[in-house]
Amino acid sequence: MTDNKDNKQELLRCGLRLFSSRGFDGVSTADIVSAAGVTKPTMYHYFGSKEGLLEEILHNHYGNFISELENAASLPEDIALTFFRFAKVCFDTARRSPEFFMLRAGLMMRVGQDTAYLAAKPYIDRESAIIKQFFDTAASHAGNIKGKETMCTLSFVGTINATISAYLQSGDESIISDETIYKLRQQFLYGIYS
Amino acid sequence: MTDNKDNKQELLRCGLRLFSSRGFDGVSTADIVSAAGVTKPTMYHYFGSKEGLLEEILHNHYGNFISELENAASLPEDIALTFFRFAKVCFDTARRSPEFFMLRAGLMMRVGQDTAYLAAKPYIDRESAIIKQFFDTAASHAGNIKGKETMCTLSFVGTINATISAYLQSGDESIISDETIYKLRQQFLYGIYS
DNA sequence: GTTCTATTATACCGAACGGTATAATGTTTG
DNA sequence: CAAACATTATACCGTTCGGTATAATAGAAC
Predict the structure, then answer these.
(1) Which residues of chain A are within 8 Å of residue B188 when distances are taken between CB atoms?
(2) Domain A50-193 adopts which CATH fold?
(3) For A91, phi and psi rounded to 5 degrees?
(4) pLDDT, tens digit, for every residue of B98-127?
(5) What pLDDT score does A55 carry?
(6) Where are the domains of chain B?
(7) Which of the residues A154, A161, A193 would you substitute to probe the B interface, choosing the one with the greatest number of B C-beta atoms within 10 Å?
């Protein structure tokens, strides 16, 4: 009986789980293959290197996430709707794949020349650009945002990340409910439209 | 001529710098002592272990930071003032010691059982408790906060961290100016008092 | 049944890891 | 000057690291 690509998927799963909980440098290739029930040459056959495994994990999960963000930004002139959609995509992704969001959070907050950070940087930059572009467009439709674009972007991203982080630590799904989005949006837009 | 405790300070400095840019697991003891211009036994003489070095770094910087946060929370019933003071402490600390804030950011966003994260957890929890207690007290003085305490805490912390992160990446000090604090406070309190 | 190809297991590599035993230093104290 | 001390350098420990050479295995095609 051949496991075929089963082992590859198992390696991707275990890699994500371990990287998210102990960091890229905190996990050894031996840990990963042991968790996946295979041996090292199998892993190097599929991914070429430890970094290659990380890159494929990022490509899969971060790629999806960014696609959904881009879809959510299809009506940027509707600020309230896009706000909701953005938050919804983030919360849904965090609920569906908490480990990806842990990994993403750990990589986002790095500033130096860490290998793993460099691999994630293109995705992080793209994500930031989508949010920033939304607030830039929004500023041209709601004059009172003008001059606050950067602050709005930072506040939005920071709030969403902190909220998801609280969910990941507690496991309490009510933290990332639609109701939370409504409350956040209300607070956020009241501040803007003042 | 004796360098005396000079080497210890140099080790603390280099440790902070390297840990903040490449992460605890991404830095070797050889890297640290090489940067500090000493040898490994010197480092193990002072700190006992690589983790001991991290703990002393955290004790020094995080201890100061938390003390200042506690001072800033001395008048919790004055919401606007305390908001300003909290943000001011964070921004000033980030300006004075950006490397500490990078290190803190990288450690805060971890969820698993990483060694470095466990060393930082007491400080992170204490910090969260101070902010949370402020919003709890504030809720008893401003009824419209009631029920939003957690959300306010998350939003505040997330926004501050994202703002500082943007400053650390760009180096643009205007991002963490007093003017930014005023804008953030206005947006924040308008949302709350609605 | 044999050849071909893709995948896996065994066993191992040199380098780097965190950490240390030993002893030589320089400085302080008597 | 000599004893006591804190600090440092040399040299090395066993282990783990990321990565690989080699070959056994299994299924597909003929």
Answers:
(1) 187, 191
(2) Tetracycline Repressor; domain 2 (1.10.357)
(3) -65, -40
(4) 999 999 998 988 777 788 999 999 999 999
(5) 96
(6) 50-193
(7) A154
